[in-house]
Amino acid sequence: MILFEVVLSGVLVGGMYGLIALGLNLQYGIARMMNLAYGEALMGGAYTAFWFFMLWRIDPLASMLFSVPVAFCGNWLIYRYLLSPLIRRAANQEILEADTILVTFGLLFVFQGLALVQWGGEYRGYTYLAVPIDLLGATVALNRLMAFVAAVVLALALYWLLRSTRLGGALRAIAIDPVAAQLVAVDVPRLSALAFAAGGAIMAAAGTLVSMFLSFNASIGIVYTLKALIVVIMGGVGRMLGCLMAGLLLGLAEALGAYLVDPGLTLAINFALFLLVLLVRPQGLFSRG
Amino acid sequence: MQRRTVLKGGASLIGAGSLPTIARAQAPKSIRIGYAVALSGPYAPGAQSTTWSQYKLWAKDVNDAGGIMLKKYGAKVPVELIDYDDRSQIEEAIRLVERLILNDKVDLVLAPWGTATNLATAPVFNKYEYPVIHFTASADRVAQLGPRWPYSFWALVQPKPATAPLATMVKKLTTEGKIKGRVAIMHVADQLGVEMAAAMQEACKKEGVEIVYFKSYPLGASDLSPQIREMMALNPDAFFAFSYPSDTFMVTEQSHVLGFSPPIYYTGVGTPFPAYAAKFGAKKNGVLIYGAVDSTAPGQKEYRERHKAMYNRDVEIGSIGTYATMQILQKAIEQVGEIDRKKIRDAIAGGTFETIADVYSFKGQLHQNAWAVGQWQGDEVVAVYPENKRGAKPLMFPKPKW
Question: CA triplet B199, B205, B206: central angle to 5 degrees?
Answer without folding.
Answer: 90
